Amino acid sequence: MLLLVILIVLSIVAYFFTDELIPKLKELFIKAGIYGIDLCKSNKEKVPEAVGVVSGCVFLVTSFFFIPIAFGHSLMDTEHFPHNEFAELLAALLSICCMLLLGFADDVLDLRWRYKLILPTVASLPLLVVYYVNFNSTTFVVPIQLRQFFGVSVNIGFLYYIYMGMLAVFCTNAINILAGINGLEVGQAVIIASSIIIFNIIELQGDQYKAHSFSLHIMIPYLATTLALLKHNWYPSKVFVGDTFCYVSDY
Question: Where do transmembrane segments lie in this chain (predicted)?
């Protein structure tokens, strides 16, 4: 519970820091030529794009600060150090960091669609490798309606990893394809993140409390920085989030 309180405090700080940082960096994006024209407005004012990189960076820095807090009690006890959980967190942050870089590169270089299909799959490799080493469970539960045909569960083997790689591509483009209306991408990300956090809190008393606690460690600072970004992206939008935010939100 103490860790959760500390994480919430860090996330609140991250919210205000992101909220202060975005207006100060607007002109920097425009001077660099990273801007667009908002078709939802009658004026032709330049609106900075790819500002999702700001919230993404603050989120990563907040998560990095939380690592020694979350694992500090185990640092001196190397024999019982939770290496698996530590590797999972680092792999998740590495994938998010890769997606942040790839998304910003897409905003700046305007990558072709074939690269947008390949790069998210590559960025998911750290997560898939850690999952393979720690769990390697490729069995999924069959819906009740289909159990008479396939049984209670089905092991799909290596196809599971292919599916997860394809899922990363789908989620990235599913958020990105709805872009065009002020606050839409960030708004749906806030709703999804809030739903996941509520579900995790409810399930903290269950058997999988470690998995839900791990999810909270990522989702709470993400929600805080995303709310700050939504404040500036809400109509009338002062900034555009760009593909950078869509790539990061996938993970």
Answer: 51-74, 86-105, 125-146, 158-180, 186-202, 214-230
Question: Which class for 175: exposed (0-12), middle (13-18), buried (19 or more C-beta within 10 A)?
Answer: buried
* Phi, psi for residue 241 in degrees, rounded to 5: -85, -30
How far apart, in whole angstroms, are the C-alpha atoms of residue 25 and residue 80?
Answer: 44
CA–CA dist 37, 39 (Å, integer): 6
Beta carbons within 8 Å of 164's beta carbon, 6+ residues apart: 124, 128
Q: How many Cα neighbours within 13 Å face the side chain of 159?
A: 6
Cα(209)–Cα(179) distance, integer angstroms: 35
Distance CA 159, CA 86 (A): 26
User: What are the φ/ψ torsions at residue 135 (nearest 5 degrees)?
Assistant: -125, -60
Q: Which residues pair with 153 in a beta bridge?
A: 141
Strands annotated E in the chain? 35-37, 46-48, 139-141, 153-155
Write the pLDDT tens digit of every residue in 185-237. 899 899 999 999 999 998 888 777 788 888 899 999 999 999 999 999 998 88
pTM for this structure? 0.86
